Amino acid sequence: MVKLKYKYKIILIILFLLSITLFSADWPVKDITYKNFTSFFGETRGDHFHNGVDIVKKGAKIYPIEKGEILFYYDEDEEPTRATIGIGKYVIIDHYEYRSYYCHLDKIDIKNKILIDKNQSIGIIGNTGRSSGEHLHFAIKKNNFFIDPFEILKLNIEKTNNSPIIDNILFKSGYYMSFENDKETSLTLPFREVFDIYILARTYDDREMHKGIKEVTIDIKDNNDKNVLSNLIKFNYIENNKLNGKHSIDEIYTKVWERNYIYLGRWTKKYRRENYTLIITVKDIWGNSKVLKKSISFK
């Protein structure tokens, strides 16, 4: 009897593992690598956050990330008198725990369908709506807010293993600005009552165009190893066009010389004759990280 129960447990475990393999979510475009991603979750779009990821693969078929119910689709060709909308032709699929969005499609294949399997094509990647090139804008909505698709989907694609790149650290006080790179281990600043600190960072890519930052941590410690500034920025979800339901686009991004810097915080607690240690940790979407450490003194 004990052996029989043991066998049943083994069978249940095997069935459970098979269910994960067969029914887990997967990317909507097949056979892609990190080079097929051109934009990531949480990037700035001027007046709003990018609520998904952009995938480029010319002429590729689009598939549901898992089985679900077709909630809605819009095909502008069926309503030629209606003004073009930003996301072009799109499909929304309900997966019961969350919804997936497939936008800028060239062609929609799921008309007159209610239920769809992950192996059935939704349509073809396209350039409809307000789009600067052929791509799929893909987003996931859960609990009434958009989440990073990488929170749901597996990293079962070729990815870069290189550390993120920190292009610049910006110290700003009024009209004064100091741009620091990640090469030097120390820096000297003029003493100011307030410094606003920003970072320009991106995931490593041979095209040098990705942002793909998942989180940034800043700590500034005094001579006694006590934090005088500590902050964590995480790009997890967007609710009512606010990052993590708290921060507006202007509270996260600042454009300096046509480049979008992430705001890390305001440094006020300091003394002219004391030295400080700056520690910034950047993690990208692929799980890679980089730590920058600098000593700071004042003139």
Q: Please name the CATH topology of the largest domain.
A: Coagulation Factor XIII, Chain A, domain 1
Question: Cα-atom Rg, whole angstroms?
Answer: 23 Å
| Structural class by SSE content | mainly beta
Categorize the overall geometry.
elongated
On the 0-100 scale, what is the average pLDDT?
87
Number of helical stretches of at least 4 residues: 2
Largest sheet: 12 strands, antiparallel
Protein architecture, described:
- The chain has 299 residues and is mainly beta.
- The protein has 2 domains: 26-151, Distorted Sandwich (Glucose Permease (Domain IIA)), CATH 2.70.70; 165-298, Coagulation Factor XIII, Chain A, domain 1 (Distorted Sandwich).
- The chain is 9% helix and 42% strand.
- The chain contains 2 helices and 22 strands.
- The strands form 3 sheets. Strands 1, 2, 3, 4, 5, 6, 7, 8, 9, 10, 17 and 18 form a 12-stranded antiparallel sheet that branches. Strands 12-11-14-20-19 form a 5-stranded antiparallel sheet. Strands 13-22-21-15-16 form a 5-stranded mixed sheet, with no helix packed on it.
- The longest helix is centred in the first third of the chain and has 22 residues, at 2-23.
- It is elongated.
